[in-house]
């Protein structure tokens, strides 16, 4: 499709500043006339810039500025054999992925060309911007020659879509910057408050995502998945899993856990087991234990997205954990706490939680003393612990770890990211239900104090919530 003459001439300054200063060998997908790459070379003449551009006549212009330029459609062509694997410090996708119908496949294709410590840097428009929302509320969705609703944007995304795309492609994404273009009218935002309340969306979260015009996302290779597959795929026959969910929001359920690739396609025999009307997680857990058809039982929040391959990878990760730690495992999760001594703890895990990437610098897998509840994995042939109904929907991950330890097993945090797509924020200090459940946990497990979780620190004398 024809683009305006100045479309290929601009430089994304915000994206430019996110390219690591240490990156010397850079691949730019959609390099246009080469001005962005030329600016990178001007910043550091030692840089070697390779460009890929879809439009042949524009690629000819880029050849005058960059070290190598190839003119082809990255969706339908592979990089030439002359480009070595693991040869780029950085791959730049500036306002490109929204133009690709198969963006996830392209990102998978590019991954082997990154050095082990390399990263993709992408700038992607945000479909959730208030200008698009205003158009839709006034019965419009008008495409234009440029901007958010560019006529060539065939892959429209919100931030959660971006996270899911990178995770499915084998990366760990992180938002580096939100680019803002205009401030939302206060009256318009005020008019949305009843809708946000109805949907259970925190206003402070909504304001951020409604005003973000574009996001700059950095994505690094999820190495653990690659090494686990190489080590275990010939030793472990992966089996179908039961995925149990306490469901009270059909929209969250359908857009997240039910949309997880292995469950959405269901070509591997996995069992998705939602339960509506559960009064507490203990009730949902008992339902799962009775109706689970498979040995692996994944107990997960309805607003969690499990990336492509997750259910196979968790089985490799379980075997890896038992081999490396030398003890039988009863429950694994993706985020937790390890008690180092009476006064010190270690944060463990890797996941995308709302807008942020949770990735404390700790070696995984690692035994833990507390697990976050967003996703827990059990096995029938190990231990299916009792859960206390008094805890409601809180602290049952920590309780599962404590019961495992009492039975001679371990709870373990594994290196296997997922996406927690919750729109609720800041509930620790002002959630009365959470406070009551903390008191219940404190009473039940008084004999095991102190206990540390991701949201609270409990001693025999007190409960202190984390900020």
UniProtKB/TrEMBL annotation:
Q: Name one GO molecular function term.
A: methyltransferase activity
Which UniProt keywords are listed? Methyltransferase, S-adenosyl-L-methionine, Transferase
Residue ranges occupied by any Methyltransferase type domain in the UniProt entry: 27-119
Give the GO biological process terms. Answer: methylation
Question: From which residue to which does any coiled coil extend?
Answer: none
- PANTHER family found in the cross-reference section: METHYLTRANSFERASE, UBIQUINONE BIOSYNTHESIS O-METHYLTRANSFERASE, MITOCHONDRIAL
Instruction: Return the protein name.
Output: Class I SAM-dependent methyltransferase
Organism from which the protein derives:
Vitreoscilla massiliensis
